[in-house]
From TrEMBL:
The keyword Hydrolase applies. Residues 38-198 form the Beta-mannosidase-like galactose-binding domain. GO terms for molecular function: hydrolase activity, hydrolyzing O-glycosyl compounds. It comes from Nicotiana attenuata (Coyote tobacco). Pfam families: Glyco_hydro_2, Glyco_hydro_2_N2, Ig_GlcNase. Gene3D superfamilies: Galactose-binding domain-like (2.60.120.260), Glycosidases (3.20.20.80), Immunoglobulins (2.60.40.10). GO terms for biological process: carbohydrate metabolic process. It comes from the Eukaryota. Residues 209-328 form the Glycoside hydrolase family 2 immunoglobulin-like beta-sandwich domain. Signal peptide: none annotated. The keyword Hydrolase applies. Residues 883-962 form the Exo-beta-D-glucosaminidase Ig-fold domain. SUPFAM superfamilies: (Trans)glycosidases, beta-Galactosidase/glucuronidase domain, Galactose-binding domain-like. The gene is EBM. This is Mannosylglycoprotein endo-beta-mannosidase.
Amino acid sequence: MVEIGKIVLDTGWLAARSTEVEVNGVELTTTRPPTQPESPWMEAVVPGTVLGTLVKNKLVPDPFYGLENESIIDIADSGREHYTFWFFTTFDCKLSNNQHVDLNFRAINYSAEVYLNGHKEVLPKGMFRRHSIDITDILHPDGQNLLAVLVYPPDHPGRIPPQGGQGGDHEIGKDVAAQYVEGWDWMTPIRDRNTGIWDEVSITVTGPVKIVDPHLASTFFDGYKRVYLHSTIELVNKSAWVAECSLNIQVSTELEENTFLIEHLETQHVSISPGANIHYTFPQLYFYKPNLWWPNGMGKQHLYNVEITVDVQGYGESDTWSHHFGFRKIESHIDSATGGRLFKVNGQPIFIRGGNWILSDGLLRLSKERYKTDIRFHADMNFNMMRCWGGGLAERPEFYHYCDLYGLLVWQEFWITGDCDGRGDPVSNPNGPLDHDLFLLCARDTIKLLRNHPSLALWVGGNEQVPPPDINAALKNDLQLHPYFVKSNDSDTSAITPVLKDPSQYLDGTRVYIQGSMWDGFADGKGDFTDGPYEIQNPEDFFKHDYYKYGFNPEVGNVGMPVAATIRATMPPEGWQIPWFKKLSNGYIEEVPNPIWNYHKYIPYSKPGKVHDQILSYGMPKDLDDFCLKAQLVNYVQYRALLEGWISQMWSKYTGVLIWKTQNPWTGLRGQFYDHLHDQTAGFYGCRSAAEPIHVQLNLVTYSIEVVNTTPEELSNVAIEASIWDLEGECPYYKTSEKLTVPPKKTISTFEMKYPKSKNPKPVYFLLLKLYDVSDYRIYSRNFYWLHLSGGDYKLLEPFREKRPPLKITSLTFIKGSTYEMRMHIQNTSKKPNSNTPLYRNNFIRRNSSCDESDLSESFDLSDGEKHEISVYDKIRRNFSREHSKAKVSEVNGTGKGVAFFLHFSVHASKKEHKKSEDTRILPVHYSDNYFSLVPGEVMTVTISFEVPPGVTPRVTLHGWNHHGGHTIP
């Protein structure tokens, strides 16, 4: 008897171009199967795309490297047959009596013919739909099964006009498919248009009765003390007799690792006629004061495990289904004060700070590991929402799983974009895809696939466009809210009143549907093009009241140059040339990048006529390394100012902002906080600072110090320390505030910085702000600025590079298998000025999103005799072995005193010899902070975590603006 459950078919696949295979599908799966990867057959990437398979087998170059994409034939020139491919595999499955098995494709682009043991099944069109085939009667008696799938590209792959453009010639918009594949102003065209078996393939074995698409919903009463879980399931009786079923629903919660508490266990009985398909709704389950699921920065992401099983009389367990579920209520409305859409979670208003998301990888090389890194990066930046842009994907369950775990709310759009659905050059089809019924079928199937995830916050019809009227009306009807969710029930203390349907009987019923990304509380709310801008800005402009007119900006973009090592890893030497700085008659500089940077959509650091070149403000870059380092300085300043400017006017003018965009699905050079190789830019850490739940900041227009409290709790007994540091290491200005109380969900303005108005201010200076607890000096927020006088620049930082202050670094390493956790304790040992006595005691350790700092702490001895606590998380203490019994201390000698400026760690594979262009980085790496600065005497602890490839010994290096050359940490 085969075990009940799912078997994923993700290994052992072969692929071949259909025109090179001389046999048909029946022969492939009976008498003439391929047996090994020999021409025309090759190892296939499944899940994946045709182009991904060709890249894996080195039959085409890497399209994301340099200009190599230009050497790959486009489907418009080759014809659809060139990218029509066979995929072949085998699997073992031999059933016992009364067992049934389905072959499942979670998504194929765009249509396919499936052959199993000589039997043919046609899979209909549509990129975003699931397919399930009952193969019980097709399985081979000996259990050895041959499977071949012939995959066809989209019907309308389109052609790329010479001028490029948003979505090429827009033909792809006629299909229900991802529209970015014809190229955009941030993306090169994907030559096969993502043809392939791009999502999970599996077989599921059940008994006589199968569970299909359960729907979970929760309702809340008495101020979230009384909560009900609703659940409706679809049951299919595949047998020829009446099935007497026991339905069980169990809700449990994990108390600690591998220890669970069962909160509810309910059993119901139902009879199902032969061959029938029924919907069954369980009686609602009551919870008193359950642990709620909160977005990142508002609380913990509590998840319960809901397991549903069906037992059939005379057979036993027939099928089982389980899913993590979070109790939470998401509401939104158009705020009367700002005109922006205001979100509430569990009754608490949440100021949205997030980003636009396209997809993880342009060749759809999607994996749980990559998704986990992507989502954790967003949580690490203190973001609380991700918008899945309409020209990309209906994101996969794995994406949502990690959003559930890390607390990222998700705005999911359907597959409409204005560029491909009603405007553009050439003008696109205003009526959307040709097959409206197919669009709605894919939309409804997507809703069923994703609706049980607590992170899913709202559905949106399209990007900068609404769907055609009939589709829009159907989506509004399908996604109408259940009466319990039409308005807040927080103050309702009455008993539950009967309604027509249980909430779980709706297709969704718990989330709002918005017709388009610039309607109903987003941008101007009317669909006019009032999102953006998408380029370099003067940092102070973000704080001006007239910078953006509307309450919620769904897209505002900026620069995103990666580090030099990424340029060398993704481009040939001719791509390492930095831009030519062309001086214009109006005094502004125009950047002229090399052709490879242009191809990779580089966005310049100047906007002639408005913004002077921000890289040149630090001096003329000497080479690629210098250019990219200066770009990181600008990245940090730009994105910190963007978020701080928005949150400075929280609730008074704005309800939220989404940055365009957080990452690139290829090796692009704009709008990103980490590159396609998963190395972060400094903008990542600028955002991380600005978006922390409790934050102290400088208003760049008024020069007042502001305190931000986005938590639901009042912040009391706190004060601000502000210190100015010059390039000589002196502290000419020092001030502490009176005790402050900061209300919840509020930004307050405190005192004005007087230093620039004082006598003889320095042309370039540093400002260190700390928000601290008066009782124990614990630091809630630390924020470090580099500033220049009005009309000046940062060129004095160039000679400052030679003033290398001494550092002392104490490291502690934990290892479990290939996983490393390192604590780096960095101290600037420059002599402190005697004239002032700033607060040097700093017990603050920035939160690591994957760990809980409430775990036990452990201290270790430093050579100076002081004791400093480092949080050693409980799981690490239990599961990691300490590499060495004593902390290692490293001294970095210095030639000067003062601020250690713009320090950043990186992790590399240890090699005795390597070429300068060789990329030795180990990626991804999670840092609790990076691109940070330390004033004389100051101490900071940075946590570093990463996975090491087999056979590799890692080394950690520290670089800095005035610590160039790098220092290896033992």
